[in-house]
Amino acid sequence: MSSSTPARPLDVPRDGLPSVTNEDIDDAVARLASGRGSMAVDTERAMGLRYSNRAYLVQIRREGAGTFLIDPVGIEDQLEDLRGVMSCEWILHAADQDLPCLHELGLYPTKIFDTEIAALLLGYKRVSLQALCQEVLGWTLAKEHSNADWSQRPLPPPLLAYAALDVELLHELAEKLTDQLVEAGRLEWFEQECEEVRLHKPAPPAKQPWRRTSRQAGIRDRRALAMLRELWRARDGVAKRRDLAPGKVLPNQVLAELAARKPRSRSDVVNSPLFRSRQRKRDLDTWWNAIDIAWRLDERALPERKYTEDKDPYPPIKRWDRHDEAAAARWEVMRPKVLALAEELGIRQDLLIKPAIQKMVAWTGWTTQEELVSLLAKNGARPWQIKQVAQPVHAALQAAKVL
């Protein structure tokens, strides 16, 4: 599937570097409305630097209109016309990364073409935008600015060129990948996967996000767990006020180490080797106040050592035979069959059918192929996945006499 065209570097947009649109949004909307067809869309955020996952730049390219770099900061209440003109098909790469922050701006597509999903279904080994542009189109895109601070203003020309290039080739890439999907007989698969991403509802935030850090640090003392919880909440408040990523205020590892030490006084915090830098000492009172809250809690108010709300509902697979021998037998046949099917199709097994669905089906069990089809559909498998998986998996379990 690789292109025979020699790779050529593309460092600046072929039509020149577009200016940034902010208060002049009406002109950009009018020009976009005069264009034709789908819109290539991308965003730039400041993940790991800022508190929110908001879009600090929205890149849009449309045939007949050109490329636009829209700075949405401060004009969020002026985007109504943009929302109307963008109610069409979008071409994106890794759409699940961009759609949430676009939805925050009230921007929704009627259909999407995700070039990453297309590449995965076609069995490409490297599926980054840079890799696909090089392999499919013969263009090399620089990616050295992917972790830049997109919240800075003004954005320097090298960042603007990088941002514009992210949508420069999406139309051409989508056209080539469409031809390949049709040739492979997988266009319907692709459309189902794209629609799943477009309509996907984000998972609710974890009710106790600090629990993951406690598990990683091995904290089991209930008072220390309370300290970690209060420190986490205090840090989140500081991060939100300063619009900083929480890890920039204080890393998770430091929070965990401080909680595990269970400081008895403010001086214990001040003298801790964890707070030698001036930046970390800035919020010493905040950290001590959080710890003091945890010390004052009644024993009955301390967090439990075990938290089961987000726990996997199934026992560890290696112990299935102790809980349900039939489920263990189904898994022993089903798992390698799914892996073999994915290998035959040349795609990843988690794209063929999510491991969570595989585990649920094996644990629940079924009697007829029709029951298996219903079980897969009920738990989120797409029609193309069910068509590829249900019959061969059912037949394999029948042959192994585990149904």
From TrEMBL:
Tell me which InterPro entries the record gives. Answer: 3'-5'_exonuclease_dom (IPR002562), Exo_C (IPR041605), HRDC-like_sf (IPR010997), HRDC_dom (IPR002121), HRDC_dom_sf (IPR044876), RNase_D-like (IPR051086), RNaseH-like_sf (IPR012337), RNaseH_sf (IPR036397)
Q: Where is this region: Disordered?
A: 1-21
Q: Which residues form the signal peptide?
A: none
> Which PROSITE patterns does the entry mention?
HRDC (PS50967)
GO molecular function, one example?
3'-5' exonuclease activity
- Which residue intervals define the domain HRDC in the entry? 221-301
Gene3D superfamilies (alphabetical) = HRDC domain, Ribonuclease H-like superfamily/Ribonuclease H
Any one biological process term the GO annotation gives: nucleobase-containing compound metabolic process
What is the name of this protein? Ribonuclease D
Q: Which organism is it from?
A: Trueperella pecoris
